[in-house]
Inverse folding.
């Protein structure tokens, strides 16, 4: 399958190697945690269940998550592992689930 998940439409075969954004054919996740530092309407009183995906299809000059988005800090996860981790956040009382930079995995 040739990648056209984002506006870059790099057409990479991510089963053979990463696309322009750096993402391969598996989810890569830097951090999964209850995040209490978002605005209260987002995080509520229990925290936002935040999933920081590695890589990004943008190259923002002042990106606050540069090591995650551009250097690919993180670990590969299967869909089943990601689902289990998200369900753990919900079980821990997450106010919501916040997927950070997921475009390259849609």
């Amino acid at each position: 399958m040739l990648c056209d998940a984002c506006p870059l439409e790099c057409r990479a075969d991510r089963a053979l190697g990463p696309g322009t954004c750096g993402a391969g054919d598996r989810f890569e996740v830097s951090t999964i945690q209850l995040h209490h530092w978002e605005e209260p309407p987002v995080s509520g009183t229990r925290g936002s269940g935040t999933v920081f995906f590695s890589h990004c299809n943008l190259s923002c000059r002042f990106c606050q998550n540069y090591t995650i988005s551009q250097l690919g800090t993180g670990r590969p996860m299967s869909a089943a592992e990601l689902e289990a981790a998200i369900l753990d956040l919900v079980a821990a009382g997450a106010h919501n689930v916040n997927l950070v930079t997921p475009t390259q995995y849609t």
